[in-house]
Amino acid sequence: MKTVLVLNGPNLNALGWREQGVYGSMTLADIERSVAASAEKLGLAVRFFQSNHEGALIDEIHAARGTADGIVMNPGAFTHYSYAIRDAIAAVDLPAIEVHLSNVYKREPFRHVSVTAPVMLGVVAGLGPIGYELALQALAAHFEHGR
Question: Per-residue pLDDT averaged across 53-72, rounded?
């Protein structure tokens, strides 16, 4: 069974009460339950990790080498400036998909740039929590067909 590491960056622990008009009312725990159910249907194992600290996320990415087959990551604000996270994703050489709950292109101009996207297999943005499930489906297809 393939294992997917699902990473969430800064402020995603505040889902459910943070800017509900932008991020919705689901908590991170709600999303994780939904993702776990989807993973089970796809025959995937999932492991979850959230941190507000860049170094902790990098450590978790490094630890994924040899323990995970792919990564789904919502880098949060680190998307726009963390070359360190970008380099960590590139270094572990695992298929990774970037997820954003909101449509970053409908928001402030600084959110339109992702420094992490160039090392990702793909990006899902603006579809809310289902974006995580779509990312899992894409990884499952990648594992099966190499695309």
Answer: 98
* Annotation marks residue 23 as catalytic: yes
Exactly one of 23, 62, 81, 112 is catalytic; name it.
Answer: 23
Residue from 53, 83, 100, 132 carrying the catalytic annotation: 100
CATH 3.40.50.9100 correct for 2-145: yes
User: Residue 126 and residue 87: Cα distance in Å, rounded?
Assistant: 25
Query: Is this prediction's pTM over 0.85?
Result: yes
pLDDT category, 112, cuts 50, 70, 90? low
Residue 53 annotated to the active site: no
The phi and psi torsions of 74 (rounded to 5 degrees) equal -105, 100
